[in-house]
Amino acid sequence: MSIYILCLTTNGGLPVFTRKKGDCDNLPFSTVASLNGFHMFFKSLGITLEVTHSEDWTYVWRDFHNAVTLIVCARSMTEGVLQTLAEIVFGSISLFVNIDELVDLTLLERMKKEARNYMPVVDAALEACTTRILGFTNCVLSTENQQLGQRLNDFSGLCGSLFCCLVVGNNVTVGTEGWWDLDVIDRELLLLLLNSSSTLQNDIPVYLPKKDATLAYRFVTIPLAPSSVICVICGAAPSFRELRSMAQDAFCSESLLQNMERSLTRSLPEQLEIDQCVLAIIVANLSIKKCILAPNSIQATGGKRTIGGGILRLDLLKKIFDQTVQYNKNISGVHTEDQIRSRCIEPVDQYWCLDYHKCYAHYDTIGNTIFILFMSSVPTPAMRFIAQKLLYSILQDKTISWNGAIKLCRNIICKIFE
């Protein structure tokens, strides 16, 4: 995988920054000028150049507020992921620059001045392309979620903020209703800002580009345990000292957080039994834009834990997920919902049989989906039953918090006994 990100001013084409990720060389100035020149040439003709493809590469051009132009070039990545990456990169700038200042003549100087703040977020976004599902809030589940959710709601009431979440590792464990109502871009930017910070304890003024790009908020992060942080979006009050005291009172039980951190290795409860033919799992809600990306560390060779190939399997499943979601989104964009259903285009179950692996995906009517990567030796007819049984096992425990889980469970139960 190779990615280039080029940021230029829209009117003058002046370079602001260039970033790359993967096994690729630096782009020469002539290439940068050519990529921007194509975009400006078509724009002069009244044509918006948005995307093009070569044999191996995909190129995306995005103008933001007629002030900033982003050019994203990548190999082995879908157009949808690159569009999301462009949104996040521009959002990282908007975290620290008021949207009204984007039309200012001193924009270039301001962007260069704020580079020390937003460039770590841009680098974290590039890193997330290889380790996370971009455009979804990555979560971790455990049997402590319900109790932690109750404590988080208590903390939310004490501090007077609707936007709170508990992050364990780099993933969200529980969040308030207001947190999940935020646009996924805003959520991702805040998590990337936390992950790129040198400390877990922060009190940073930020703008939320999707919620309100002109109003400054406080993004406060308070460490509760070595891998656990509570995140709050609030105004000038209460003070950081008061917030820390409230958080410590609400999450005074260290055993809950310690048990929670044990689930980090696979993002699922320890006691959940996963069939040995399962290699990796993705459970996602396409409406709320949240997901679980979980490897299966127990393989079929006598129940021994294996490390080799785990990253490659996750990467393969992630690519299948990205391509399928993009394909289904394109179908929905061409046809209306009634046309899709009448033509039986809307997928319910999908199968892939590859050289060394098999994959199965299931969708329900409320935006939930599960993707599972199997060993190639598993019988194809058995994949559906194993996957739906696993999904039911994940969702049946009431101590695990997952939006839409009850309706999804009922759908799966009905389908299992069809």
* Helix-strand topology string: EEHEEEHHHEHEEHHEEEHHEEHHEEEHH
**CATH secondary-structure class of the largest domain:** Alpha Beta
CATH architectural designation of the largest domain: 2-Layer Sandwich
What does the largest sheet look like?
6 strands, mixed
DSSP, total strands: 16
Q: What's the quaternary structure here?
A: single chain
Helix content: 25-40%
Number of domains: 3
What CATH calls the topology of the largest domain is Beta-Lactamase
| Basic shape | flat
Note the gap between the termini.
42 Å
- Low-pLDDT stretches: 300-308, 404-418
Order of neighbouring strands in the sheet with most strands? 6-13-12-16-15-14
> What is the overall number of helices?
13
Descriptive overview:
Residues 309-397 form the FUZ/MON1/HPS1 third Longin domain. The chain is α+β, with helices and mostly antiparallel strands. The protein has helices spanning 29-44, 79-94, 107-113, 115-131, 145-159, 177-181, 184-196, 240-250, 254-261, 310-334, 337-342, 380-395, 405-416; strands spanning 2-9, 15-22, 51-53, 57-64, 68-75, 137-138, 163-168, 171-175, 202-208, 212-225, 228-234, 278-285, 290-295, 349-353, 357-363, 368-375. Strand 15 and strand 16 form a beta hairpin. It is flat and about 60 Å long. 39% of the residues are buried.
